[in-house]
Amino acid sequence: MTESGLVGAAARVAAGDRPRCCWCQRPLARREGPGRPRRYCRQSCRQRDYEARRRAAERGLDEKEIILTRAELEQLRDRLWVLACAVEDVEGDLARAEDPAEVRAALDWLLEAARPLRADAER
User: Which of 40, 50, 54, 108 is most buried, by CB atoms within 10 Å?
Assistant: First the structure.
């Protein structure tokens, strides 16, 4: 919750950011005119959110709780550790970089470490 008391997409809109899909967090296209603001970028996101809320209610979970297998959690931890190491390496590389090619190589390494997390987020 933010200082304004708003949560999620409402907080981002109040902060001047572009609203995002409630399910996948992709930016939503701005829409002018009457009606409620969009909450989902696609029908499939709306359906997945509905199914997740239904499953959570069946299991007695709060909206902010999720269920992960131990393998999924370990995989996420491993990927975050690799990304954290890459950030640390790139910070040092950028501090010593003397030409644009070194900067580019450091950023390429960081992007390579981040891509598996992005792929997971898009699933």
Answer: 40
